[in-house]
Hints:
Blueprint: E1 3-7, H1 15-27, E2 31-36, H2 49-61, H3 67-84, H4 90-98, H5 107-126, E3 129-130, H6 147-160, E4 164-167, E5 170-172, E6 178-180, H7 186-196, E7 201-206, E8 227-229, H8 230-238, H9 250-254, E9 259-263, E10 272-275, H10 280-283, E11 291-304, H11 313-324, E12 331-334, E13 338-344, H12 345-348, H13 352-363, E14 367-380, H14 390-400, E15 407-410, E16 416-422, H15 426-443
Parallel strand pairs: 1-2, 1-7, 2-4, 3-4, 7-9, 8-10
Antiparallel strand pairs: 5-6, 9-10, 11-13, 11-14, 12-13, 14-16, 15-16
Helix pairs in contact: 2-3, 2-5, 3-5, 6-7, 11-13, 14-15
Amino acid sequence: xxxxxxxxxxxxxGAEQFRRVKEIVEADPSRMCVVxxxxxxxxxxxxxxxxxxxxxHAHINxxxxxxxxxxxxxERYYGIRDELGLKYDLEAEFARLRGELNRDxxxxxxxxxxxxxTARLMSEYLGFGFVDAAECVFxxxxxxIDYDKTYAAIAEKxxxxxxxxxxxxxxxxxxxxxxxxxxxGSDISGAIVANALDADIYExxxxxxxxxxxxxxxxxxxxxxxxVTYQELRELSYMGASVLHEESILPVKEKNIPLxxxxxxxxxxxxTMIMENIDENLSRSRRLITGIAGxxxxxxxxxxxxxxxxxxxxxxxTLEMLEACKVEVEHITLGVDSFNVVMPTAxxxxxxxxxxxxxxxxLKPDRIKMDDNIALIASVGRRMVSVPGSSAKxxxxxGANNINIRMIAQGSEEISIIVGVNNCDFERTxxxxxxxxxxxxxxx
Length: 444
C-alpha cells in the first residue's frame, strides 16, 4: 500500500500544525510521499506566505521598501524551525535570497521559495528525504506540464529516496528557470506524484472534512459527501462548488487512483472519497442526490423560427457570433420552432443588443426574447438515472414552495438536472432541494 499525502497551507501554518502533520504521517506507514504547500494563515488576521512573497515582488518592482514584509516571512520560518528544534540553515537560505532581491528576480522563483522552505523544514521534521520539484516537475515553454518526463523523473527519485517530501506548486522550464502553477497548484503536484508512483490512494489534507452536499453559506450544516465519482465532482465543480483545482483530478483519474479529501485538524473524520466508480454496497448510501450547486446571473436568449429543428444553420451561426464576442455558452436547448442559449450575464451585458441586432439582420428570425437575472442550480447524483421519479421529486418540491422554474436542462450523462430560476430565488431553491432530498432519505 502506498499513499501520497498532500498538505495545504492551512495544515502547515505554524509549528503546532507541523506536529499534527507528523502525527498523521506516522500513524500510517503507507504515507511514504508528502507534498506540501507554503505555510498558510494561522488566523483570520494573518497572511499566507505566498501572498507575502507576491507582495515583496510588487514592492521591489515599484521601488518601495520590502524590508518589513520580507522580515515577516523570515520570522514565520524561524519560528517554526526553532519551536520544533530543527537544525536547517535558514539563515544561509535567507541571506542568499536577500542577495537576489532586485528587479531582476523572477516572480515565479521568489514565490516558489514558500513551498521550497516549507518542504525543507518538513523533510527534516519527518526524517524523510527532500526532493526539489525543480528537478522532477517539467514544463514546456508554453506553460504545459511535460507529464511523461515528469512521471519518469519522480519515479526515479522515489527509487533513491522511497520516503520523501516534495514542495508543490512549481517546477522548471527547459532552461532550468522556475515556473509556478496557478493558485492551488500544489493539488496538481500531489496528483502528479500519485500518478507517477502508481499510488493506491492520493490524500489531500486541508481544513475541511471533505466536500459538503451544499454551500454552508446557503444551507445550515449541510451533510458531508462520503463517496463521489469523478464525473459527479466535475459537474458540481462546473456549477460553482468550491472543490478542487480541476487539473488536480486528471492525473489520478487517469489511473483510477482514489482521491481522499481529509481534515488535518480532524484526522479521525473519513472525509470524502472520490473514485471513478463506486460500489453502492460499499457506500451504503440511500441518497438520491450527491450534491447541489449553482451560480447566479445568467442571460437566456431565445430565438424563434419555424421548423428550426430541421434547419440548424441558424443555431450554428448564432454560436459563431457569440464565439466571436468571446462569450461562453453554458447551455443550449432546442425545440421545434425555437432554441435558447444560456450565457453568463457579465460576458454578454455590454454587447447583448449588438448581438441581437446582428442576429436579426443576418438570420431573420421570427422573434427574439431575452431574459436576464437567471440563476442555474444543478442537482447532481449518480443514482438519479436508475431511480424512477427523480425529476418528479425535484419539480414537486419546487412547485410546493412556489418557485418558478424558468428553464430546465439535463446533463448528457443523466447524473444532473439543472433548473433556471430567478436570481432572487437562488438560495431558497437550494435550501428547498436540499431539504426535500434529505427528508426523503430520513423517511426511508
